[in-house]
Design goal:
This protein has 335 residues and is of the alpha+beta class. It is 43% helix and 25% strand. The chain contains nine helices and twelve strands.
């Protein structure tokens, strides 16, 4: 083999080796024992938007605006050659001059040679910016889910504790508890399927219509968006109204109708208040209850404590008349 053939062979090998390196998508640098750049692949220049002449021969710690000049990283890289160590997934988040804020994982190892006496270091940069953003979003979603689950379990526990047991059979307890639980599930389904706010008319139809759709007269009112944090307590109140009407009032054996309407008070300069009216009109007179039941407590406490409003309940021979006053919460108010 003459010198020309040897040169051609070496040239071909070099081109192939460089082609392999340039095919790799991750940015690569080859450093000498002083951490100066002696080679870089095409991905490095494309990722960091730098020129070859500004990179080759420059210290790693002087590249860009000194983003790699980190004492801990310098220490780790300096130990690779003398101690045959490696740096694996060292994370750096930095605002780079041309590409903005990015997060990279740096892995550095001694460059392999057959005689095992290499003094060069191969440095690989893995861009994990989007991965970290997704992980952050997943963490936020998990935290929100955990928060909502804790609140939901708290509501279920409250329903179980508030469901009356004195003088009731197990079947009576189960019937009442399951009714309230199903109302809670209906609220949850609306919250999952809907947007940030839930339409009041849809909420009334779903909760009350299921127990007495043929006797419900929904006069309605202006469009009202119920914030998600208000959906569950308002649902439980409407369920207690409807359950009471089914047992003792217009949805039951006495016959009649239930009229529901609402309006908004307050203007643009002050918070709005929802005024919701529940009016039973029984065909046959009913007897006013002699004691306050659990359902009444749920209604009054729900309106006052959970909704920061009030509930006014009046019983007469035609049934229950209720007036709810509820501050309208905005969508950005969280639970």
């Amino acid at each position: 083999m003459n010198l020309e053939d040897l040169y051609r062979l070496l040239r071909t090998s070099h081109v192939q080796a460089q082609g392999i390196v340039d095919t790799i998508n991750e940015p690569l640098l080859v450093l000498d024992e002083k951490a100066c750049v002696i080679d870089a692949n095409r991905a490095f220049f494309a990722t960091f938007l730098v020129e070859r002449d500004d990179t080759i021969g420059t210290s790693l710690y002087s590249l860009g605006n000194g983003q790699w000049n980190i004492p801990r990283l310098r220490s780790l890289v300096s130990e690779i050659i003398p101690r045959s160590t490696a740096v694996v997934d060292y994370e750096v988040t930095h605002t780079f001059p041309a590409i903005g804020t990015r997060t990279f994982l740096l892995t550095a190892r001694r460059l392999w040679k057959p005689d095992d006496n290499s003094t060069h270091v191969l440095l690989v940069f893995t861009d994990v910016t989007q991965r970290r953003a997704r992980e952050h979003e997943s963490s936020l979603l998990f935290s929100e889910l955990r928060h909502r689950m804790r609140n939901l379990l708290g509501v279920i526990r409250a329903i179980a504790n508030q469901t009356e047991t004195t003088g009731k059979t197990a079947q009576d307890y189960k019937t009442v508890f399951m009714g309230r639980l199903e109302a809670l599930m209906a609220a949850q389904s609306l919250m999952i399927a809907g947007s940030a706010d839930i339409d009041l008319a849809s909420l009334v139809t779903k909760v009350v219509g299921g127990l007495g759709a043929d006797r419900l007269v929904q006069h309605g009112g202006p469009a009202v968006a119920i914030a998600q944090k208000q959906v569950i307590p308002l649902t439980m109140i409407l369920h207690e109204f409807a359950t009471n009407a089914l047992k003792y009032g217009a949805f039951g054996e006495r016959g009649g109708t239930v009229e529901i309407s609402w309006q908004l008070s307050g203007g643009t300069s002050e918070p709005q208040t929802l005024l919701l009216s529940w009016q039973e009109r029984c065909d046959r007179p009913i007897v006013k209850p002699t004691r306050q039941g659990t359902g009444t407590s749920i209604i009054e406490n729900g309106a006052k404590l959970a909704l920061q409003g009030s509930a006014q309940l009046t019983f007469d021979s035609q049934g229950l008349t209720a007036r709810l006053r509820i501050p309208v919460a905005s969508a950005h108010e969280h639970e």
